[in-house]
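Revision sheet: structure tokens.
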Amino acid sequence: MPETPTFVPGPQYDGWLTGVEQIGYGGDYNPEQWPEEVWAEDVRLMNEAGVNLVSLGIFSWALLEPREGEFDFGWLDRVIELLHDGGVRVLLATPTAAPPAWLYAAHPDARVVDRTGTPMGPGGRGLMAPTAPAYRSAALRITTELAQRYGKHPAVVGWHVHNEYGAPVALDYSVHAQRAFREWLRDRYDSLDALNAAWGTAFWGQHYEDWEHVQVPAVAPEAVNPAQQLDFARFSDAALRACFVAERDAVREHSSAPVTTNFMAASCPATDLFAWGKEVDLVSNDHYLQAANPRGYVGLALAADLTRSVAGGKPWLLLEHSTSAVNWQPRNVAKRPGELARNSFAHLGRGADAIMFFQWRASRSGAEKFHSAMLPHAGTDSRVWREVTELGANLGRLTELTGSRVHADVALLWDYESFWAQDLEFRPSQGARHRERVDTYYDRLWRDGHTVDLARPTQDLSGYKLVVAPASYLLTADAAANLTAYVEAGGTLLVSYFSGIVDEHDAVHPGGFLAPLRDALGVRVEEFLPLRADDALTVTYRAGAAGAGAASTDAVPLTGTVWADDLVLAGAEPVGTYADGPKPGGAAITRHRHGAGTGWYVSTSLDVDALATVMADVYAAAGLAPSGTVAGLEVVRRTGDGGTYTVAINHTDGPAKLPLPAPATDLLTGDAVTGDAEVSAGAVRVLRTTTA
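Predicted:
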């Protein structure tokens, strides 16, 4: 096997392993679930399937340290040597997501406590109280022992710290969290006067005169102070991240291999991945389709785009997805023939340099025995196994994609703190949830063929032709200034309702709703006019007018739900008006020239089809257009030294044509392609075009 190269760790490492030019392929390997005589057969079958990388030891703490301070590494030594001899590289895990029973017994105070005050016992998975000294000490001890023993082993090419921080443990209300929360608040605010001001404690008589009186926001008779809850979300995220950093640093004392942890992008909102992305050497993600959604591949694309964005555009690793059905959803639908490949290539096309699964061999016992695997209960004479081996062979043909990049012209704002704040209690409408608007606008962009970066509202946005803010309820003054400057410089900004409402302390901005974006949008909100659950309204939209700035006679009716605003124009032009609802004749959709750019505001909830009409004009203003490809044909591109790599995925039941700007080579077949490339029903093509 090739010699394992050395690696100098650094933030957001560019490529999944220096000197190894191949797509990583494999999954979680849990050999402790099987008799030792099975292990050699596993490695043989891994070679047959094209597996070159496994995550190892994720839930093995109780076997590695069967009693406090007593270690048994013999079995792990033998597994690693088998994998090494078979040419399979290892991402070695720290097993701290599965604390052993003896740790719970010795330190019952270190259990996670839920919001009602109930301690969470052993028997499942997930870390103990992240701020509990006993858990932290034990976690660092096992991590250090592993790093000392395997830090220079040639098979260990990277480290997989913990497992899915924030799932299932995101918030802890234990005595340890109480103590640490107060310390965190002291560091953040310095004085009780500053805390009282930030939390608006004059309301409901919540003023504090003693730090010891400040509590975690546990269950109370009424809604707990929203600023307090928001700070607790920030604190809890920081506490989890501190656990990762401590383990990462313990590994780095003894190993130069890159360190990662598997995120749950787009499905675990408790962790601010933009902050986490700065702490890992490699950005990694786990993703599972929501089986109830027949268009779950759109959610997959969003998760992949978010992961790439957290990585700053650099390649990333898909550490888990499923070969077929999962076991923890209400209806666990098996993947159709070819869906395993379509899902995998969608992640690859959106920047992943490794495609991995949970897990290698299906478990016979335990909570996930009905979860699909690379080697299913049905064995090697099964459709899943045949698709697994076919995928491994195809990924082996795509070595040249490693390290190539994805470019996006559109940014969609993704702000964890805003999401945490918007979804608290006592908001104007329960229908105004951040994720619904994000998903709807993303789906519209997906259907129109636009690759999207997920962006923070404070980052440099100058490289994007269009920025979409579907749910920016919490918008700081600095973030609003950044968006305004983006418009002034010639950008096109589209903002949806219930945005620009509060500051970082969940306090309404001086000047009222939407005040910080008034210059960019030329409009202010006098009053929210949310609708009843089953009500709808009609917006008369002047289609075609806004794109070119000329009048149009095409008045298109659009249906809105959930929300309306009583808008006061402050320079903006109404391009859509309410035909009915709570404000007939009022402005519903506006556009505003500010500097060299344009700001758009949509004050009601339009579904993905209604958005097509509005977005056509927004695209025109931004110098963009829908791709025009067949509905259901997903097309993404990566660019590298070898040219442009087009990954085309047909999610439909019929063939689709993809126009090509230049002759191409199909990397999966070796065939030359000119003119239109046909993508068969349910199929994938990977096409390379080169430029002179």
